[in-house]
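QUALITY CONTROL LOG
STEP: pairwise intake check
CHECKER ROLE: data steward
CRITERIA: each record must contain a sequence immediately followed by its structure tokens, with no blank fields

ENTRY 1 OF 2
RESULT FIELD BELOW
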Amino acid sequence: MPESQSIEYKLSWRDEYLKWICAFANAKGGKLYIGINDKGVVTGISESKKLLDDLPNKIIQQLGIMPEVNLLRKNKLHYIEIIVQPSSVPISFQGGYYYRSGSTKQELKGALLQQFLLTKNGKSWDELPVNAATLKDIDPLAIQYFTRYAIGSKRLPLQSKSETPKSVLEKLNLISPEGKITHAALLIFGKKPQRFFANASFKIGRFGKDDSDLLFQDVVEGNILQMADQVMDILRAKYLTSPISYNGLQRIETLEYPEDALREAILNAIVHKDYTGTSIQLSVYNNKLILWNEGKLPSDLSIKKLLGKHPSRPRNKRIAEVFFKAGFIEVWGRGIAKINDALTNAKLPKAKVREFAGGIEIELKQLQKKHVTENVTENVTENVTENVTENVTENVTENVTEKRKQLILQLMHKNPNITTTEIASNLSVTRRTIARDIEQLKVQQKVKRKGTDKSGSWEINN
């Protein structure tokens, strides 16, 4: 029998092999054989009875665990079998923590060690307190946003609407026993989460012919509870088209990817991201989009299992609980299945899911490649190839412009003092484009300017 996740062979005993026993105990357990070579052939050991007496004491004294140690015999040769059970608590050897992965022993350090210790102790990273944070760092408007959705989904009682931010956080277990604001509380409801977690952001990039051809990009920051809404708004306005069709006189706009699939994929990335790593990244191409978030799968959950029915195993327990109460996600491990159901209904291929660069990558693809020219206009429209009619191109352009106008109104509503230059910067288009859009909004009587260009403000007409 060859070496494996649960089997290791050694020709003779050395005290450093206590690291291997430690690794087995911290993983799924295993067996260490002394007196067998790498090919699984018994070579035997001398002083086997003395080793049988010494090993249990060494293991107990150094590791604090009691394995089963057996003296076995084959072809008149004695060898030792050490059976190690998985430990429910972290086991260390001389200050180091070791873990069995595949057929190798690895010393855990940094973020991996932190995650291991938290998991062994039944905790998750998002439950940890942030000593420098206070209730002043929590945004009451984000709390109101949450309670509105949670009451609407019938996962919070109606009286929750009148509770204080502190009371809501306490009921959501987002304040530590010591009274400190937790990682989850800051990420979900923080005024400026990126002040504490620099990479708690969502990057979107539009690519042309290849990965070196970045056409434009956006970075979404702020609390993660409202991040999915912001990402979807930007995708509709700038990155994706909504082909227009008519049912009689009714005008119908359908996003090129089903919104249910997009939203589920975005929420999965936000909820399951390792927030000690880098930003979430969404790459949009002519005929596909690829979404990646940092964070490996649990050791006992493969991609194959992920695609089928499996227990929900959130990396960030508190974050997942809040998103569930808000009605944004389920708790049945059906995220990928829901994405594929939406894609199938839209007659698109199923999502491709893979482990990549220490995280999870999901790819959504169009049936046919959409050809676009290398130059993207300042209006963020795509120049359609010759085989597409002029009317279709006009409809796409009109749709993108209208979506951008809606985003302009949202920015003005959020900050009535925002300047045209700032709006252009937010939407990654030229100031001239924004000025033209605003003039059209004024003609449509949707917005007006109060005061001067330098010191005035915007007033939205409902």
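ENTRY 2 OF 2
RESULT FIELD BELOW
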Amino acid sequence: MDTQRLKDKILQLAIQGKLVEQDKNDEPASELLQRIKEERDKLIKEKKIRKPKKLPPIEEDEKPFEIPEGWEWVRLGEVVNILGNKKEKGLKLPYLDVEFLRGKDTNNFKDTGMLSKAGDILILVDGQNSGELFEVKEIGYVGSTLRKLHISKELYIQYIVKNIEFNQKIYVDNKTGSAIPHLNRNLFNNTLIPLPPPAEQKRIVEKVDELFALIDELDSNKKDLLEVINLTRNQVLQEAIQGKLVEQNPEDEPASVLIQRIKEERDKLVREGKIRKPKKLPPIKEEEKPFAIPEGWEWVRLGEVGAIVGGGTPKTSVKEYWEGGTIPWLTPADLSNYTDKYISRGKRNITPLGLKESSAQLMPKGTVLFSSRAPIGYTVISQNEICTNQGFKSCIPFIINMNEYLYYYLIYSAKLINENASGTTFKEVSGTEVSKLILPLPPLAEQKRIVEKVDMIMEMLDKLEKELIINI
């Protein structure tokens, strides 16, 4: 749900007279305008406000839509004045700069400035967001980029505020000045405002506030539900790798036998020259094991069940490494907002020569790709032969049927890996560190049952999330 667009639509209906019913007994806006004029003349005579420049009459072709009977079109400058920056001193008060007014506790005090009191409406007149409004919550001195608005007491002030907010994007997009942008005061003063009777102004604001509160509540509930879905995903993965998601079957071949078969397959690949002989990994100490695992499972290091492979980037200045390339080459950026379990290629391919002349390595179908920097934690399985840049430390399982279990294990472990990563410019995890990750290894048959159960739950959660995003 695009809450801001919905709010904008409500404001549009409000200022067109379509949000609340008109009451024929309301005093017409024409009489209100006469009182506003009398009030303004009095304030000018008392020198409380400056005499404004005369604004041009409103032509018929300027009016963007029809308004109800009893309403009047006015220019904003006829009912609102931007006041000067008259400074006062003598009291030590909070400094009401933009950061403070946006909710940041700046803990900044001054003893001189333009005094503003609770209830005042301020407008930003300098900077990129010129035209933004703020309602003052406490007495203080106003920042130099802000000015007070004088809105006629004959008006329901919040109705005018909502009109200005509705037009705020126009003011932001049409600032004056180059080095320092300023509010286009001519545009501001000439803005057309549809003016209802005073009583209807109040009804409109009350209805708008009611609807906005409902939208905010729905949006808050939606965010809470989305957070619950995300927490549920993490909980499912946690139960999966702790052996609590599916039942164990005593008939399954134990993980100890699977480990022996993994070693045999690894040694075979080394003999055939398909992988390098891996470095010996340290034994797992009891204090490293974060939880108890079911009978038939074993603790292993990731590097014991798969080859950890890095990547590389061919020189971009050598066109022979890239042009006409057919070998899929992946970067972490290719996985940004990517949600599928499998991937076949990224945005770019490299040539066989580019592969040969770089540290990129061609990995087989079924490799679990894991981004090791910028950011850490993108995880996906290759649908075909593929290579990556140096932003990956991928795992080629010695028994390829283990890849989906390892995929979910790495997704779950990404947060912990990121917390323990090093780096100043950006965090990074090395191949050695990935190899040393400890993995709770179930029997192969149980891995299959775990993956099927996780797939089913994740699909259900994905559908629920999509429904929330689209329909609420």
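INTAKE CHECK: passed for both entries
DESCRIPTIVE NOTE, ENTRY 2: The first strand starts at residue 72 and ends at 75.
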